[in-house]
Specification:
By secondary structure, the protein is an alpha/beta fold. It has one domain: Maf protein (Alpha-Beta Complex). 30% of the residues lie in helices and 24% in strands. It has six helices and seven strands. Strands 1, 2, 3, 4, 5, 6 and 7 form a seven-stranded mixed β-sheet that branches. A hairpin with a 5-residue loop joins β5 and β6. α3 crosses α4. The protein is elongated, with a radius of gyration of 17 Å. Nucleoside triphosphate pyrophosphatase that hydrolyzes dTTP and UTP. May have a dual role in cell division arrest and in preventing the incorporation of modified nucleotides into cellular nucleic acids. Belongs to the Maf family. YhdE subfamily. It catalyses: dTTP + H2O = dTMP + diphosphate + H(+); UTP + H2O = UMP + diphosphate + H(+).
Length: 198
């Protein structure tokens, strides 16, 4: 039996526990009917390049959650690449400090992938690349940012929706994509999956 709400609209499953992705969907007027946290190994494969890595994770996250007949699943992944290197989430203060020093004054690419699985099980994926350049960060600026606590656990060691935005000299691409879900592409994918949007 197909899963729909009382108005006959297909149910949307967000394959993410990220509050940022819920907030971004809310900007489209969408409240997920269900949230499921995908359990996957996010370790890059040997020799895997950043674009392929971000795409693979978005698809694997979408596939990892149970989808009832008639449900639509959406998943995303945002990775930070410094050249050919994927910067991991800053799980420790030491790693965060190392990454902030590495990206100081340098070009980095935020790669945001979105995967939508429609009611028929068809997968659609879009990927957006956003150029981000931080100012040359002083040791004092790095330590003050670390002390704020907002970048811990984030890819690249920062969260653009917070204090880090004041340290970014240039951004070219999708601001929402750097946060965690590129809204233009997300809206296009959901429309292609016949999810009704205003």
């Amino acid at each position: 039996m197909a899963m729909t709400d009382q108005a006959g609209k297909p149910l949307l499953v967000l394959a993410s526990s990220s509050p940022r992705r819920r907030d971004l969907l809310a900007r489209l007027g969408i409240v997920p009917d269900r949230i499921a946290s995908p359990d996957i190994d996010e370790t890059p494969l040997k020799g895997e390049l950043p674009r392929a890595y971000a795409r693979r994770l978005a698809v694997e996250k979408a596939r990892a959650v149970d989808r009832a007949p008639g449900e639509i699943v959406i998943a995303g992944d945002t990775s930070v690449a410094l050249g050919r290197r994927v910067l991991p989430p800053a799980d420790t203060v030491e790693l965060q400090r190392e990454m902030l020093r590495a990206i100081s004054g340098r070009r980095q690419m935020c790669i945001s992938s979105v995967c939508v699985i429609d009611t028929a099980g068809r997968e659609r994926v879009k990927q957006v690349e956003t150029l981000v350049i931080f100012k040359n960060l002083t040791d004092q600026e790095i330590e003050a940012y670390i002390a704020s606590g907002e970048g811990l656990g984030k890819a690249g060691g920062y969260a653009i929706q917070g204090r880090a935005e004041a340290l970014i000299r240039r951004l070219s691409g999708s601001h929402s994509g750097v946060i965690g879900l590129p809204l233009y592409e997300t809206r296009a994918l959901l429309r292609a999956a016949s999810y009704p949007l205003d």
